[in-house]
Amino acid sequence: MLDTQKSFIPYLYTFASRVVVCMAVKTSPEYFVLLNQAVSRELQVSVQYMLQHTKMEKLMRKTIPENILLDKTTYDAVGTFLKDFAIQEMKHAAAIMERIYYLGGSATTKSDKPNIGDSLSAFARNGVEAEEEALVLYRRIIDEAGKLEDWQTREMFEKIYNEEEQHLFKFQEYVNFKDEPEEPETTSVSEWRKIFTPDYFDLLNKALASEISTIVQYTNQHEKASVLRLRMKSTPLEAIQESNKSKVVSDLLKTIFMAEMDHMEKISERIYLLEGEATYNPEPLPQVGETTEDFLKLDREAENYALVLYRKIIAEATKRGDTKTKLLFEDIISQEEDHYWTFDDYIK
Fold this sequence. Notes:
The chain is mostly helical. It folds into 2 domains: 26-182, Ferritin (Up-down Bundle); 194-348, Ferritin, core subunit, four-helix bundle (Ferritin), CATH 1.20.1260. Helices cover 66% and strands 0% of the residues. The protein contains 10 helices and no strands. The longest helix has 32 residues, at 29-60. The two termini are 43 Å apart. Residues 1-21 and 237-242 have low confidence and may be disordered.
């Protein structure tokens, strides 16, 4: 049974009234539930691995004195492949979303709950658990796809399965890693750190939640743009250019999505470096829409939300004297404003 108590857990869709686009494959509601479970899992591990990657800077502070003489530590090495895995997992989510839309279903924007951890070995153990669960699910999907003679989906999941297995093997290398000893807690906090209060971290985490929301939203919309009715050419110019508004917006979303991933990385890294804990719940919840016009209006609203929030963060950082966070968000807000006007330009 699917758990619907948390907004971050996948829910059951009703497909009875949907028009199946790919008539060559006979699907079922249960099949789409399976595929959406895969989407939710891929979104989970993408966020999980990215937040673990950004938490590495905090863990590196615990390196033993001898490591200071090294150009590269274990934390650098693991942090690199965690980021690579996070990007690869988001690509998996996008590919599965696209296949769901092609088959006439609707891709979820829900994610399973990420499990971060506080040490390199914990990252590895959590990664092993996530990858093992994924492999079990994907074997089931491969089997079901074969029964339905959905060869394209089966081939796609066989490729994903191979990549997830490689992730599992890599995490297994670190499950017995001897972590640096925990630093003893101090009763006093340095004067300059007293500005980083819980309410300030709540504000920074709202920004992170906003970035995660837009990443999921833009990814889903980008893949939904592949649906046949959105790809239809209706004018000679569209036929000549082999493109239409939906295709242009889809390409645009892919570019902006990469910028949002960069924002997510920088904001979460800043939170961890200030000794805070990063959130993983998207807020506001991602909204996809049904048409290209819906995409643009919803995305403009998402950027509007971010701009208002980030101005508050800049003002608060300025008031507290947190210059580095202020500069970070000034750079981000400049890019978000460009995104806002780009979406606005395409709205009728």
